[in-house]
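Checklist before submission:
- one chain only
- standard amino acids only
- sequence pasted in full

Submission:
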Amino acid sequence: MSRKNILVIGRANSGKTHFAGQLYGRLKEPQSSLKINETPGNLEMLGEVFEALSEGKASDHTVAGTWDSLKLSLIDKNGKEFEINWPEYAGEQWDAIFSTRSLDEKWKNQLDDSDKWLVIIRVENEPTFPDFLEKLANNEKPEKKHESPNSTNWDANAYWVEKLQILLQLSKTQIANKVQSPKVAVLLSCYDEVNTENGTPYMILEQRLPMLASYLVANWNKDKLSIWGLSSLGKELTEASKDDDFIDEGPETQGWVISPDETIEQKNTDLTLPIKWLLND
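Returned file contents:
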C-alpha cells in the first residue's frame, strides 16, 4: 500500500514559500518530533529563502517561480513515513484546473496519493464582493463579466468553493455524506496582518469568507476539518530593507500558529502543529 501524503493547495502569493522555508527550518531543529527523511531535491530554493530571511528580508517571489514543485519527505516519532507536496508554485496549472476541470499528470498523481490537504488562504489578499453573495443568496445569477474564473474580479468565496469541488470530483471523493477523506487543515496565512478582534481562526474565516466557511462545515466531518491561523514570519518583511530585530532573533524563532479553538493571544511557535493534526488519524 502506498504512503498517503499531504498535498499543499493555495494560490500564488498566499505565503506558501515562506511557510515552506520556515517549516524546513523547524524540521531541522533537534527537538522536532517530525524529522526530514530525505534531503529535498529543491534544497537550493529553500536555501535561497533561508538566506533572505537570515538577512531580515522577505524572500523574492521569483525564487518560487523558478521551481515547479517542492517535496519534503518526513518521518514521525512512530516511524511513519510521508511526504508534503507542493505540486506547483507559479500558478499556471493551479489556474488551469479551474478552467479545464482537469489535471496534468503530476497533479493527478499527487492528488491520487494524498488523503490529507493543507489549504493555504491569505484572507486579507482575497477579493470579495458582497453584492455577488447577495445575488447568490437570493437565487439570482450574477453577471459574468470575465471569461477567466481565476480573475481577481471573481469573489473568493465562489472561487474557493468551486476549486475544492473540482478537486473532490477529480479525486473521486464520495460526497453523498460528510467527507472523511481527504482530511483538511486550512491555514489562514499572514495572520499577523488580520484584524482578529480576539476571534478564533474559524470565526475570522466566517467573517471574511462566509460562503467558504459554510461549505467546509457542511461538507466535511467535524473531526476531519480544522482552521488555523498562520504567520510564518510573525511580522511583515520587505525584499528591499533589512529588519534588524528579525536578524538578531533569527528566523528559526520567528513565526507562529493559532490553533483552531484559540485566539491570537495564544500563539504557538511550533509551525508543525497543523501537520501533526493531519497525521493524527
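Reviewer check: The radius of gyration is 18 Å.
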